[in-house]
Automatic annotation (TrEMBL), chain A:
Similarity comment: family membership: Belongs to the binding-protein-dependent transport system permease family.
Name of the protein in its database record: Tungstate transport system permease protein
GO BP term, pick one: transmembrane transport
Entry-linked Pfam families: BPD_transp_1
Species lineage: Bacteria, Pseudomonadati, Pseudomonadota, Alphaproteobacteria, Rhodobacterales
CDD domains attached to this UniProt entry: TM_PBP2
Keywords: Membrane, Transmembrane, Transmembrane helix, Transport
Species this chain originates from: Yoonia tamlensis
GO cellular component: plasma membrane
Automatic annotation (TrEMBL), chain B:
Presence of the UniProt keyword Glycoprotein in the record: no
Native source species: Yoonia tamlensis
Protein name per Swiss-Prot or TrEMBL: Tungstate transport system ATP-binding protein
Sorted UniProt keywords: ATP-binding, Nucleotide-binding, Transport
GO MF term list: ATP binding; ATP hydrolysis activity
Domain ABC transporter residues, every copy: 8-232
Superkingdom of the organism of origin: Bacteria
Length: 234, 238
């Protein structure tokens, strides 16, 4: 018990004194995950919206595949990205393995289906709601898309935030493709795994506090966005 | 001089759902003036007829002909749905929306919107999110939003079906004013009292077909079909 209390106290101390190592690792985490979220959103939000609005052959199949991709175990994504970017793999010449770029790629693959799926559901509901009105007002295809994106902006933001939340807490894939290299690819989750293994609970808990803080913040924002949606603000 | 969109002629129109005929074949002409009430029990095909006239239903057979090409005709019609479709925006933005679609500048659109909001009694709710309005307020907003582009014809699908007497009277007042200023109105209802208050023409429907169609006075004074007579007597017709 004493160990835990001591760990909690010194972990907390590391956070409030802005321990340089902890700050560096946090910034790396944010850099990787924010970039991955932005890239994944650029791909997944329009794709999800497009899926919701367009009727085409095999649409159901595409949606089923999307939902299946959402369930991909991150570790397996890590393994696949590892194989693709390892020296003997097809993209080996790029030399990206064990760089933040490789971690970003892995995270994009993990969260893009999630973001697309949430965006798809939201846009599908909105489109079902608006369809007759927009047709009746003879809105052009572009005007319809603009209207849906604008009126669905909170839902789209929620989708992106959900992706961020999933990516920031992910450990398996980025451990494999990033390698958890000090000052290079070490992020919050992989650092926690390492420090726990070494028995440095103070560090592990300090990092854990930051991670929890980020996760909680994201969820509060998602919740707030949901409330403004219901109240119709912005 | 712009060519009017009316009269509208529907001939041999059939609407199917899952290969079952739910409307028609219907032949109907909507002339340049008047207030047509589409009367009939639930499931008679009123909604389907209105949607078909407006071009929201694909016709399995037959066609609808306006006096101008279809893409122009659509922009000069309005439609009010039975359960109002509110954009998830403020009352003001709901009103400016169709104007902005047509390319009107923002200040001008906002000014028109304020005027219409005042006419339907929503001037104090301008910044309120439209989905939060009461049912009656939503329907008044939907009506103002349909009328704001000064359409030549407005279709209304049982706009008062779920409203109380006061909201119904407010809607009817706005409608009569629009009618007086020359807007052609085609409105579905299953409320005979409302039909009597408003109609200049009646289209009486049952089971997907038009049973009777003509001037309102004649319809109410001496219905030609036993079904219409039964309806006017107050019997349950289905
Ligand atoms: N989405 C639908 N799928 C199948 N049948 C429908 C659908 N909508 C309406 N119908 C049928 O079409 C007929 C006409 O319906 P409708 O036009 O809504 O009548 P009304 O508006 O007069 O109540 C009814 O028999 C109804 O059961
Ligand atoms: Mg109906």
């Amino acid at each position: 018990m004493g160990d835990i209390w001591e760990g909690l106290a010194s972990g907390f101390w590391l956070v409030v004194t802005l321990d340089p190592d902890l700050v560096a690792i946090t910034l790396m985490s944010l850099r990787v995950t924010v970039t991955a979220t932005l890239i994944a959103s650029c791909i997944a939000l329009p794709f999800g919206a497009w899926l919701a609005i367009r009727r085409f052959r095999h649409r159901r199949l595409v949606i089923a595949v999307l939902n299946a991709l959402m369930g991909l175990p991150p570790v397996v994504v890590g393994l696949i990205v590892y194989l693709l970017f390892s020296r003997s793999g097809p993209f080996g010449v790029l030399g990206l393995l064990f760089t933040p770029t490789a971690m970003i790629i892995a995270q994009v693959i993990i969260i893009a289906p999630l973001i697309a799926s949430i965006a798809h559901q939201a846009m599908r509901d909105l489109w079902a709601d608006y369809h007759d009105l927009l047709i009746s007002m003879s809105a052009s295809k572009w005007q319809r898309v603009k209207t849906l994106i604008w009126d669905g902006r909170r839902a789209l933001l929620t989708a992106a935030l959900a992706g961020f939340g999933r990516a920031i807490g992910e450990v398996g894939a980025i451990m494999i493709v990033g390698g958890n290299i000090d000052n290079a690819t070490r992020v919050l989750t992989t650092a926690i795994a390492l420090e726990t293994g070494k028995g440095d609970f103070a560090r592990a808990l300090g990092l854990g506090f930051v991670l929890i803080g980020l996760a909680v913040t994201v969820n509060i924002v998602i919740h707030t966005v949901g409330r403004t949606e219901r109240e119709g603000k912005w | 001089m712009v060519t009017p969109v009316l009269p509208l002629t529907m001939s041999g129109a059939v609407v199917k759902r899952r290969s079952k005929i739910v409307l028609g074949p219907v032949d109907l002409t909507i002339g340049g003036q008047g207030l047509t009430i589409v009367l009939g029990p639930n499931g008679a095909g009123k909604t389907t007829l209105l949607r078909a006239l407006h071009g929201l239903e694909r016709l399995a057979q037959g066609d609808t002909v306006w006096q101008v090409p279809l893409d122009q005709a659509r922009a000069r019609q309005g439609f009010v749905f039975q359960s109002p479709i509110m954009l998830r925006r403020s009352v003001l933005d709901n009103l400016t929306y169709p104007l902005r679609l047509n390319g009107m500048a923002k200040p001008e659109a906002a000014q028109m919107a304020r005027g219409w909001a005042a006419r339907v009694g929503l001037d104090r709710a301008l910044e309120q999110p439209a989905p939060q309005l009461s049912g009656g307020e939503q329907q008044k907003l939907a009506l103002a939003r349909a009328l704001i582009t000064a359409p030549e014809i407005v279709f209304l699908d049982e706009p008062c079906a779920s409203l109380d007497g006061r909201a119904t009277r407010e809607i009817e007042t706005i409608l009569l004013a629009a009618h007086a200023s020359g807007t052609r109105i085609v409105m579905a209802t299953h409320d005979i009292g409302q039909a009597k208050r408003l109609a200049t023409e009646v289209v009486f429907m049952m089971r997907g077909a038009i049973v009777e169609n003509g001037p309102a006075a004649a319809f109410f004074a001496s219905p030609k079909t036993p079904q219409a007579a039964a309806l006017l007597r107050g019997d349950i017709v289905e």
